[in-house]
Write a structure and sequence with these properties.
By secondary structure, this protein is α/β, with parallel strands linked by helices. Helix content is 41%, strand content 17%. It has 9 helices and 10 strands. β3, α3 and β4 form a beta-alpha-beta unit. α3 crosses α5. The longest helix is centred in the last third of the chain and has 21 residues.
């Protein structure tokens, strides 16, 4: 299967001061999908501009025609399935069926603490996994059924109406970010794609070879989860969000470096790589000309 190349455009630029131009350029360059992060704030960008994912994608949907659009990733940290479903149905309609929902359990950081009251503690990894395990199946129902009533441990819906549903049928695709067994099971049952950033424990001191071996293990676990769910793992697209393996941003230093990196991960079974749109002075700094050369020429070399 050929390897698709996508990009991640962080929502850090005003729409009329270069933001719109990035999404238009992503379409011109032929990227398969342009994603954005769904956070309240994120890492070193906290004290600078950071815009909302859904309004940004709505604007991108009206500015572009062919480019798929999506989140990498939305999480339960500050989202509720009922309100999120309504926004996604609207966004899928506006885009004429070009939306992919990247979804994950979320993590520590500003999303986990911004809405806390008083001395409340952020959810533990187990609590996040528990919520995620309820969030995804409920969201699946909300996007495929006209009316949903549900009473769970964390979420409820009382006659939640979602007519007319998604433009994509039976619903827009889920790209489920997961590395643990519970998340893998959700990907196997509800995902049209699976997303990984690699093994975070290897980011600081691991090697590219160790990273690929760890990812190979993740894909094996995904295969077992699919088998348990009675599903062929080949049905799921496999997406690598780059920039978080020991390779860091080096694959964007040249076309040859990227083709080598991409080819090695294609051999592991990945069907899509997502690369960050360059942001000068950040961890995602890269030469824009080299980045665009990769976008337009790498696919032909990868086959």
């Amino acid at each position: 299967m050929s390897l698709r190349l996508s990009t991640v455009i962080l929502p850090v630029r005003r729409w009329n001061e270069g933001g719109r131009d990035q999404w238009l350029r992503a379409e011109e360059l032929g990227f398969h999908t342009a994603y954005t992060y769904d956070h309240l704030a994120w890492r070193t960008f906290r004290d600078g501009p950071w815009f909302g994912a859904v309004p940004t994608l709505t604007a991108a949907a009206t500015a572009t025609e062919r480019l798929r659009l999506g989140t990498l990733v939305t999480s339960p940290n500050f989202r509720h399935p009922v309100t999120l479903a309504k926004e996604l149905i609207s966004l899928d309609d506006i885009s004429h069926g070009r939306i992919t929902l990247g979804i994950g359990a979320g993590g520590n950081g500003f999303d986990a603490t911004t809405l806390l009251k008083g001395d409340e503690e952020p959810w533990s990894p187990r609590e996040r996994a528990d919520r995620f395990g309820e969030f995804v199946p409920l969201l699946d129902r909300l996007l495929t059924e006209d009316a949903v009533t549900y009473e769970g441990t964390f979420y409820s819906a009382r006659e939640a109406r979602n007519i007319p549903g998604c433009a994509q049928r039976p619903r827009l695709p889920f790209a489920v970010a997961a590395t643990g067994p519970r998340g893998m099971r959700l990907a196997a049952r509800h995902g049209q794609a699976w997303v990984t950033t690699g093994d975070p424990k290897l980011f600081e001191s691991g090697t590219p070879e160790q990273s690929r071996e760890a990812i190979r293990g993740q894909i094996d676990k995904l295969g077992k989860a699919c088998a348990e769910a009675g599903r062929d793992v080949a049905e799921l697209d496999k997406v690598l969000l780059t920039g978080f393996t020991p390779d860091r941003n080096r694959p964007l230093e040249s076309l040859d470096a990227f083709v080598d990196f991409a080819g090695r991960h294609q051999e592991l079974g990945f069907t899509e790589l997502a690369v960050h749109w360059p942001i000068p002075g950040s961890d995602f700094a890269a030469d824009q000309a080299v980045f665009e050369k990769i976008a337009t020429e790498a696919a032909a070399q990868l086959g």
